[in-house]
Amino acid sequence: MVTGKTSKTGQRIAVGVLSVFSMIWVAPILFTILQSFRPYDDVIKKGVMSWPNHLTFVNYYHAFVQSRMWLFFLNSVEVAVPAVVLTLFLASMIAFVLSRYESRFSVPMLMLFTAGNLLPPQLLFIPLFRIYLKIHVPHFINSNGLLYDTQLGLILVHVAIQVGFATFVLTNFLRTIPKEISESALVDGANVWNHFFRIILPLLRPALASLGVLMTTWIYNDFFWAVVLLKTGNKRPITAALSNLQGEFNTDYNLLAAGACMAFIPTLLVFFAMRKHFVAGLTLGSTKG
Amino acid sequence: MSSVLEESQELAVPAKKKKRKGSHNFSGSDRVTLGAFVGLPTILHVLFVWVPAVCTILLSFTFWDGIGGLKNIKWVGFTNYRQIFQLDDNLPIAIRNNILWLAVFALIATPLGILLAYYIDKNLKGTQLYQTSFYLPLVISLAVTGIIWDNVFRTDGVLNALFGDTNPDTAISWLGDPHKNIWVVLFIASWRHIGYIMLLYLAGMKSVDPSLREASAIDGATEWYTFRRVIMPSLRPVNVIIVVVTIIESLRAFDLVFIINRGTNGLQTLGVLVYQNIQGESTRIGWGSAYATLLFLICLGPIMVYLYQNFSKGND
User: Fold this and answer.
1) How many Cβ atoms are within 10 Å of A10's Cβ, its own excluded?
2) Is the Cβ pair A190, B137 closer than 8 Å?
3) In chain B, what residues touch A111 (CB-CB under 8 Å)?
4) Between chains, do B122 and A222 touch, taking CB under 8 Å as contact?
């Protein structure tokens, strides 16, 4: 990288600022991880800053077995995976039409999706909450027969909102790919269906990977909709279930730390494994095409 | 065979005629496919996003206790708005907090994010490590973020331990004192926001033509001058995004304050008041909707800016 002229003192200031800040960024996370390995009694007796003489897995055991965090983690996965797959699929379809078969409706449609994604969730939730109490679903989905308090309902909201962002990103992405690639296929006699599945979908792969990683973390990390649309404790995703670990009067902070670690370690692993995609996903929407 | 060929030519020709939009000739099955491709996502998006949004705005002009059917909805004009401004003590606190949130994001967190991006872009030793640490909060949910920082700020937490007083009666209550807790929350929110701004800026700076910088450096410009006069102007699109993101994020504020104390005792925000009037102790759909509509009106500006930025130049 060309950095131009940077004086020695300039460099020292930069390193100083960066190290101080990254300490503030990492320290509380490391501290939480450390807390998750310390027994509660030890911390209560000697204070939170005391030297950790014994480390233990007992908090993880309690979080995992007694507080059933594995169940809540699975709940998160059960919502995030179908929601992301469905979002990407629906958004690819409409992005394909908006970028390859342009009409005077293309830009207004794209604006509708883009603006919809930017609306504050609080603006949607009052009627959605009432509508969910009115929509009936078969009993194998929910024993009381309502869309409210189902994972299906949660998935639908996520898809409906995220499809706005994904459509915006994917349409811009497709517009940067020359249409000639499609035209040669069309000469070969591909219909719309094959044009999409055989040509466009494979082209979209890099953008779908980035969006997929980003949206998985977004939906996995969602708190608002999980709190608002689910009532039954057992159905909650892990982010919303962490409050189960907080006692009414006394909280075992070390148990809570273990639960928090169980909630964020999967996303950290995804981040480290697919960092490039994650960063690309976040910047996809911010650069034009 | 011949019919297939004909069909393909029919399709290929309009694709080339870019000027005549909407003049495609499609076979019946293609029309069904196209209809489904556009229809399914649109119906879902409109039904679950735009219809509820419009309903909320309408509900803000009505009175409805939520019991009984839609027949019990009474049109009351601006009564809800008058009431929340005159009667609800939470509203001034929520407005103050949302403004503070925006001010801290705009005046402190965003410039810090830009500064860090500027330093990271120098590619000094260990840059990767610094960069990764700044991204971490973006991966962690706000619910977990609240728990992580609670270790630091609760009465018997790290900060008070460093001050040497963790006695619940005498120690500083960072999260319980309504004059202090909002600043703690803003610190935590900034911890997350700074990394996001840095990421957006870094991506923007990577796209600046390196030869521009070189030329500026050869001309003897100082680094700061190069940054201000050469890099910044070419980052205009990124700057617009950052303004939009900063405003919208600060208005949406919900998760963090909800985790800490359900958004009470000095931590009220507009987003929380919507929730509290719907699923809290009392159901006041009219009030909740009025709060949500206020939130929408403030978001409208940044949304328009964002749309203008992305669609004003047509399809380029």
Assistant:
1) 14
2) no
3) 307, 311
4) no
Cross-chain Cβ contact A32/B191 below 8 Å = no
Write down the domain spans for chain B. Answer: 26-54, 86-311
Buried b (16+ CB within 10 A) or exposed e, A69-87: beebbebbeebbebbbebb
Nearest to B151 among A120, A164, A253 (CB): A253
The pLDDT tens digits for A51-90 are: 888 888 999 999 988 889 999 999 999 999 999 999 999 9
ipTM surpassing 0.85? yes
The string of pLDDT tens digits covering residues A27-58 is 999 999 999 999 888 888 887 777 888 888 99
Mean pLDDT across chain B? 84
The C-alpha atoms of residue A158 and residue A152 are separated, in whole angstroms, by: 10
* CATH code, B86-311: 1.10.3720.10
- Return d(Cα B270, Cα B165) in angstroms, integer: 35
Task: Tell me, yes or no, whether A174 and A76 share the same domain.
Answer: yes
A193 and B140: CB-CB below 8 Å?
no
Residue in B40, B161, B275 nearest the CB of A48? B161
Q: Look at residue B6 in the predicted model and tell me its pLDDT.
A: 42
How many domains does chain A divide into? 2
Are A155 and A85 contained in the same domain?
yes
